Amino acid sequence: MHYPDIATLNTRYGARGRIAFRASEKGLPIAALAGVTGSCEVSLYGGHVLSYRPAGHLPVLFMSKSSRFEPGKPIRGGIPVCWPWFGPHPVDPSLPAHGFARIVPWRLAATEYTSRSAEIRLALDDTDQTRVWWPHRFSLTLRVALENALKVELTTRNNDTHPFTVSEALHSYFGVRQIMDVTVRGLEGAAFTDAVTGTAGCPQETPLVIRQEVDRVYTDTEAECVIDDAGLERQIVVTKRGSRTTVVWNPWIDKAKRMPDFGDDEYTRMICVETANARGNALSLEPGESHTLVTTISADAKAE
Ligand code: TA6
Question: What pTM, to 2 d.p., does this model score?
Fold first, then answer.
């Protein structure tokens, strides 16, 4: 896809002081949304929320300083869209990890704003290339709404003549002051599969602290999660709709060193709490059927 030039995007979809488009260093178009409640940036490449800063707060999303913004490569941070499969492809390891939605250009469908909100809607439809990766006809839309919180909605529609199965995640990277001072609440009582140890069905008995690599897929949970960041004296609240899976990930020391698009010490300043449908919560959609995955992110000063 060839994007319209930045001037055309601003003429057609911009709004002075509210919605503006710019090009990244490598020419990828980025939309900046601003309003009284905060600001966010969204890359048309990958349908990728890059940043979110609520009014009166430090940025909420983490972006690696080593992230590449190159066509065909995932962006390391923000909210990657993992679709139509979560994790490595179940059969063919040569296919892109976490699907292809985050490494292809999305079409700009619309922008809107009111006195207190601004939103952008992006779209991705099947192409010859996507059908090579995944032989189905679909339409995917992403709605990013800057309101009192940041709401991100991913809607899948089956445009084919047969059912298909999708696993998906809004793979949110959150910025924290120091991972050692972070507690994730809300998953107590949920069962998880631990990708580090390979064990399944482990119960989460207490709030989660991070003292080593954590890569946990919690299934059959619709719970709100709170990332309690004692270092910044703030809580990030992640609520969700249309999601039965939550994934928590921190690469810790050794994996961080193996990731070329991630600083060796950046594991100390981030945690992923992902709104997903994966493993036993994968979705099967009939022809003509749609499903929407929603994550809503807000920040609060730490409750006393
Ligand atoms: O968030 C869970 C996870 O599946 C981890 O296993 C880790 O691979 C992470 O996603 C990042 O994946 P990526 O393909 O973006 O490097």
Answer: 0.98
